[in-house]
Structures are given as structure tokens and as C-alpha cells.
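name: query_chain
kind: protein
chains: 1
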Amino acid sequence: GDKSLTGNSLPGLSLGPRTHVQAGPLPKPTLWAEPGSVITQGSPVTLRCQGSLETQEYHLYREKKTVLWITRIPQELVKKGQFPIPSITWEHAGRYRCYYGSHTAGRSESSDPLELVVTGFYNKPTLSAQPSPVVASGENMTVQCDSQVAFHGFTLCKEGEDEHPQCLNSQLHAHGSSRAIFSVGPVSSSRRWSYRCYGYDLSSPYEWSSPSDLLELLVPGVSKKPSLSVQPGPVVAPEESLTLQCGSDVGYDRFVLYKDGERDFLQLPGWQPQAGLSQANFTLGPVSRSHGGQYRCYGAHNVSSEWSAPSDPLDILITGQTPARPSLSVQPGPTVASGENVTLLCQSWQQFHTFLLTKAGAADAPLHLRSTQKSPQYQAEFPMSPVTSAHAGTYSCYGSWSSNPYLLTHPSEPLELVVSGGGLDPVLSELKGSAQALPQESSGLGWSERGSERGSARGGLTLRGKEENGALPGLPTLRGITSIMDRRGG
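structure:
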């Protein structure tokens, strides 16, 4: 055939989409690939050429190097502009154009180029969003493609719900690189933002690696935030399981759960426990230290790609991350009248940034207090004033570090708080009033001067440690503090 029609006589010519070679009066045809132009090796694909004439003949050619497979297509398909490939290989990859014509109207100009890419020739790279896949509407996003082997170039492809991938090439590296950085956006909450990346070598630029796993960006919207809760509670030991429940009263059809700093998020369909309510239960476990962190969830309706505003954050804390454990004790002593001021004291010989206090069976977040040094120990005082029956229960305390606040020590020995009956004897009430008028220690530990009235109260609050005799863990330490304060003139 006439080589001038194949493009092979012009190996260096690369026609951009705006370059028109007027080869005749016929407008250029459209060339596309079904299901797409980026195809996994071994998969089928069909190239389609569509012109403007009713009766015409179609011609497909590859730039720079002819291919034999086109000549084997049955003529009845060629007349329809269909060029199927049952199982694509590296030999099919390349840059194609098509044209059409007839004996009367002559030849059309060539179509815009179609780059047919075959993937699966190298191991897949890893695609991640920096610093997080959660990005605010209107902002740009940095995504990073990393590979174990060096490539001359990387390509990032955006995958839409109903469109062919839109791809972006990285800068080329003559000696190869194992990383490429792309900027995408500005993003909006009204559509989905899903990406894959690939690596390739310049010697075969249409033969790409296997695709990375899909990276989906989460762009929070403004619709009503769901609620996020945890069962049995936010403080969990290694190997245990927990369930994070994302729920809403606006009937979302699907939910995602995202942990700060993670590469991706979990997505589940919602279900309706009752009319108007929807929820999803995300089960985590058996947990390890990597599960510790801050979580949020989002909801969406199926008819929209838009996510809701984020839920309030929920911290999941993993215990047992050091052999150390603090001790938990009570001030002013093992028995106090209800309505009194009570302080739980968490202490440790080892330095911690924060102490946390939990109550068994409570799904609430633990109380946090910064550690203070009371030589030779570190401690935090958790006040409960005035104490009521609602404070009854079993308490534990933990230490944590600033380097990872979601990892905790083993728990202290549990401390049981038993709250009994009501008021004080009238005379004792007067005594109590005068005792409170005495100067207090600035530390808030000034309870030694009020100890004499304790046992006489009709109602009381009793704390029991694990020991059968009712002794409290850490009481010797407390007595030590008492005597120190007495010496100070407390």
C-alpha cells in the first residue's frame, strides 16, 4: 500500500490534537477505544473509528511502526469502523490514528491520536495522598506514587464514574526514579475523586506497570454530620475487638470511617435499625497498637457522590504498651460522706506526659490530666466534687506519652467506688464548715486537717481495692504525703 497513508514515512512526526493536516475535504473522524485505552494485558479491547459519511472505508494505522493485526480484521467489521483485539499484548501497544474515505469523496484527514496502553508488565506502585486522603473542598491535593523499582516516568490516571481515565504524566527521569509527585485539584465535594498510578520505561512508553490500588479522596461536604460511638468503650487491650458505630437520622445510604494519618478509609453500606435512622458498624480487631488514633466518620446518599460533614472525633486508645503501670488511690481516705469532695490520685515512678482515668462500663472518653512531678513521683489528681451515686463504679488509671498519646500503659489495679446514703449529722456539718475555712494546701492536697470528722458521717463513700481486707493500693504513699503535709504545717 501507499506508505504515505500509514504514517511510517514520517517517524518523527507527532501530531497534537490541535494540529490539522488538511488531506481532503472530509472532516477528520473520531477514534476511541472500548472499554478504554488503558487495558490490562490479556484483556479484550476494540478500537472504533467514526466518520461523517454513510458509505465509506476505514483505515487504522499505528504511528512509527506498522502492525499486522489490523490486516487480519474481517472486512465486514472494518467497514463499520470496528477493530477488535480479543486479547491485548505488548505488540498491540502504541499510538494509533484512523481516517476514512471513498472513491468519490477522497480521503479524510487523520483522527486525533489514540494512545493504546497495555498494563501489567511490572509490579504495581503504591499511591498515597499527602498528608491525608481527606481534603477540603476547593483545595489542591498532593498525591505520591512510589515504586520498588525505578522508572523513567509515572502516569496518574483519574477514574470517573462514567468517563474514560484522564491521565497526567510525571516529569521524566533519564536515570530512573522510584517516586513521582502529582498535584491534583482544586477538588469539590460534588463528585468523586479516584486515582491510580503506573510506572513505565522510555524504551516502551505504552507498556505500563500493573495499576496501583485505587486511591479515593474524601472531600467532606456540608450535609448533617453523623454521630460516632464505640462499643464496649474507647480504651481497649491488644487482641480485643471493638465496634465503631456511625449513625445518622438523615438516612444516609453509606458511611466511611477514617483514622487520622491513614492512607485510606473503610467504607460500608448503611442499614436502617428503624425508619429514618441509618447506621454502619465498623468492627476493628483483634486490635494492635496501630489501631490507636483519632477516628471520624462521614455519611452519603447513593444518589450523590457528596459526603457529609465529619462526625465529632473519637479517640481509640490501646493499653498495655509498656510494662509500667501507675497506682490509683483515693483522697481523703477510704470512707467519705456523699456530697463531699473526693479526689482520685494517679501516681507513677515513671515519667508520663498525661494520666487518664476510666470508669468500667462507660463508653465515654476517659478523663485526661497532664502529669505533674511531686518528687519522687509523677501524678495527676482527678477531683470529684461533690460526689454522688452517679460516681459509683470501678475506676482504673493509665499513663501515656506525648510521642503517641493513643498508646497507654497497663491499667492500675482497679479501684471500686461505693457510694452510700445521705446527709451529715448537723453538728458535723458545722464542723465541716469550720474545717473548710482552714487554709488549704495550694496543691489541692490539703485534706489532712479534715480527717477527724470522717467516720462519723451517716452516709459514706467507700473505696475498695482488689485486696479482700479493703486496703487500698497506694495508701502507704498517701500516708507519706499526709505526713509531709503535716510537717509543712498544712
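note: Helices lie at 75-79, 426-436, 475-488.
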